[in-house]
Design a protein that fits this description.
The chain is mainly alpha-helical. The protein is about 50% helix and about 10% strand. It has 7 helices and 3 strands. A 3-stranded antiparallel beta sheet has the order 1-3-2. Strand 2 (about 70) and strand 3 (about 75-80) form a beta hairpin. Helix 2 packs antiparallel against helix 7 (about 85-95). The relative contact order is 0.19.
């Protein structure tokens, strides 16, 4: 059990998972779209080498016109209406094969 492992000086961690760069990008999109602040576009580009504005321009334009996303400064945010669809929006933003870096695991 967790406490016994700590007391015995052993790691209480049952297992580990190494995520690929693609999985890390998807996680970032999922998590950040659920936050009021939205996606920090500069950080997404720096951390994941993914420029969503350039890679998904047509899709973003459509989602903005539909009132699901908005750009505030250098942040991409869901609208109130889009928040209920945040997970689906993240998948849509990562859908194009050419838009997602196909790099080997870290």
């Amino acid at each position: 059990d967790y406490i016994e492992a700590l007391q015995d000086g052993r790691s209480p961690i049952a297992g580990r998972e190494t995520l690929t760069r693609r999985q890390l990008l998807l996680e970032a999109l999922f998590l950040q779209l659920r936050r009021r602040e939205g996606i920090d576009l500069d950080r997404l580009r720096a951390d994941h080498r993914y420029d969503v504005l350039a890679e998904q321009k047509a899709l973003l334009d459509g989602l903005i016109r539909k009132g699901l996303l908005q750009i505030q400064g250098r942040r991409l945010q869901t609208t109130l209406r889009g928040f209920a669809l945040a997970d689906r929006l993240a998948l849509m933003l990562a859908e194009e094969d050419s838009a997602i870096p196909r790099l080997s695991s870290q």
